[in-house]
């Protein structure tokens, strides 16, 4: 509910404060007094764009601030929480336009973007101007009307969750099918590569070890010759080094008591002799193990040729890298074998979700269809009240493929002249007809859904007399359930006000300014009488006005 509207330095408004009633607020005034300027200022905090042309004084900033009471507005609280704004029972939305044209928005004194103002405002205020009737012909609005009357909120939420899951599963299935197509194209080639590596049957570090062995075998004769010479010099020559060291150690051993350093030298000679003896034995063992083997060399050359070919083919350097490629190819081939099972499981998931979504979509469709005739009947009854006795509304609902809101195509059809030629509402209804039709529909929807504050800016243009009276009755009934603010020129509507505001111009400091004040009961009677008969109302007009206001 809009409690207070503060406007400063906007168009011909210097500064005004308006405190609204929670029920039916009526705004009247002479043409050009500035009634619609109020709505223009209000639209700023609803997220509309503005420029410096709206500034009354170009050296001061324009400020528009609205105070809203948001008790019980769960969607508003959720929005504030989701956007990190302060939460309280009173919500303050402010818009400032600087002389330089810079615009700033605030929600509870926290800076907010224009988009955030728009999103929040849509939860708080429904502003309907005289020619702002395109919404009524919009398919989404028509669907919302039917769902509100059918109380489909919970069912629609459940359906939309299933629909999103179904769409996601479809995308995943398409991805799997695309992967299968790619796998199938590459399968034969990957299988060839895998078989080739499997046939090679390489072991870890095999090529590196075979290369080292080939070097050994290719130089085996020279290696054996060097080993034999070494062994001969150590153990079998005319003066074997091992035997010579033993003799030298024994000679010195006889004299170890005569010099303190001799025992140490003897020990070192003995250790060296033992080490050389061990070396000689190892040289002999290695010599015995080294053989020239032509067949082995040929086999290694063939094995290395196969390995080097594979290394070059796959652009790698080591046996380990080839083995990793072999493992990767195995995984790719396994993926081809497993993907059919994954596709089958995903197809079942898609089918199950589609069935569930279709079931709920059918239920939504049936509940909407169930509201079509009652809505048309009630709206047509109200249309007679508001001066359109020949106009008729018909709700056409047909089945459609699954979409975000179910499986229904909803079209409001309109016959303005009772000739049974129903056409889509957006094509045939005039502005005045759409305005009254919108009022009728919103008054019915208001009984089923928590609409925000409803603001009507001169939607009663083109009606008078009994039709205007009935519009006033409908607005009054609507205002018992939620706040309604209406700008009107019709006395029959103004007489229904819970709070009557009068907009007027005044000359002050050689400048024209717009101001607004709430009328007392007697002032209301006089204002309604002037709307009936002119600036100087007759006694009959005053009596008629008194009856309108007090009835």
Automatic annotation (TrEMBL):
GO terms for molecular function: ATP binding. GO terms for biological process: DNA recombination; DNA repair; SOS response. Residues 1-506 form the RecF/RecN/SMC N-terminal domain. Keywords: ATP-binding, DNA damage, DNA repair, Nucleotide-binding. InterPro entries: DNA_recomb/repair_RecN, P-loop_NTPase, RecF/RecN/SMC_N. Pfam families: SMC_N (PF02463). Gene3D superfamilies: P-loop containing nucleotide triphosphate hydrolases. GO terms for cellular component: bacterial nucleoid. It comes from the Bacteria. May be involved in recombinational repair of damaged DNA. Belongs to the RecN family. This is DNA repair protein RecN. The lineage of its organism: Bacteria, Pseudomonadati, Bacteroidota, Chitinophagia, Chitinophagales. The gene is recN.
């Amino acid at each position: 509910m809009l409690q207070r509207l503060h406007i400063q330095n906007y168009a011909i408004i210097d500064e005004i404060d308006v405190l609204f009633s929670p029920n039916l607020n009526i705004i009247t005034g002479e043409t050009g007094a500035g009634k619609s300027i109020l709505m223009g200022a209000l639209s700023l905090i609803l997220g509309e764009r503005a420029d410096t042309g709206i500034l009354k004084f170009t050296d001061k900033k324009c400020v528009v601030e609205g105070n809203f009471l948001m008790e019980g507005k769960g969607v508003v609280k959720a929005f504030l929480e989701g956007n990190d704004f302060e939460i309280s029972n009173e919500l303050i939305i402010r818009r400032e336009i600087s002389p330089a044209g810079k615009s700033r928005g605030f929600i509870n004194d926290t800076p907010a973007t224009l988009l955030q103002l728009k999103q929040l405002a849509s939860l708080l205020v429904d502003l309907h101007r005289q020619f702002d009737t395109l919404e009524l012909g919009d398919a989404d609005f028509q669907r919302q009307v039917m769902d509100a009357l059918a109380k489909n909120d919970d069912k629609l939420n459940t359906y939309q969750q299933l629909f999103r899951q179904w769409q996601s599963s479809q995308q995943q299935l398409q991805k799997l099918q695309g992967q299968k197509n790619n796998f199938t194209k590459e399968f034969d080639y990957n299988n060839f590569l895998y078989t080739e590596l499997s046939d090679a049957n390489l072991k870890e570090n095999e090529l590196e070890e075979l290369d080292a062995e080939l070097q050994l075998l290719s130089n085996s004769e020279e290696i054996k010759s060097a080993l034999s010479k070494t062994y001969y010099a150590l153990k079998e020559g005319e003066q074997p080094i091992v035997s010579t060291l033993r003799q030298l150690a024994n000679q010195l051993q006889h004299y170890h008591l005569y010099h303190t350093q001799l025992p140490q030298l003897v020990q070192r000679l003995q250790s060296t002799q033992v080490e050389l003896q061990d070396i000689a034995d190892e040289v002999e063992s290695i010599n015995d193990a080294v053989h020239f083997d032509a067949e082995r060399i040929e086999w290694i050359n063939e094995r290395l040729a196969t390995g080097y070919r594979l290394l070059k083919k796959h652009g790698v350097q080591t046996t380990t890298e080839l083995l990793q490629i072999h493992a990767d190819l195995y995984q790719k081939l396994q993926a081809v074998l497993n993907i059919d099972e994954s596709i089958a499981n995903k197809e079942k998931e898609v089918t199950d979700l589609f069935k569930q979504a279709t079931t709920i979509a059918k239920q939504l469709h049936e509940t909407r269809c169930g509201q079509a005739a009652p809505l048309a009947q009630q709206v047509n009854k109200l249309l007679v009240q508001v001066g359109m006795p020949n106009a008729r509304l018909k709700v056409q609902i047909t089945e459609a493929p699954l979409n975000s809101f179910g499986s229904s195509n909803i079209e409001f059809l309109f016959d303005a002249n009772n000739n049974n030629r129903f056409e889509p509402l957006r094509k045939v209804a005039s502005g005045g007809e759409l305005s009254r039709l919108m009022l009728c529909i919103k008054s019915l929807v208001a009984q089923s859904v928590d609409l925000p504050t409803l603001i009507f800016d001169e939607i009663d243009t083109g009606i008078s007399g009994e039709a205007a009276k009935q519009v006033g009755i409908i607005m009054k009934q609507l205002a018992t359930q939620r706040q309604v603010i209406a700008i009107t020129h019709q006395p029959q509507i103004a007489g229904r006000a819970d709070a009557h505001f009068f907009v007027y111009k005044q000359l002050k400091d050689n400048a024209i300014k717009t101001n607004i004040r709430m009328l007392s009961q007697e002032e209301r009677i006089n204002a309604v009488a002037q709307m009936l008969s002119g600036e100087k109302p007759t006694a009959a007009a005053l009596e008629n006005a008194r009856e309108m206001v007090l009835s």
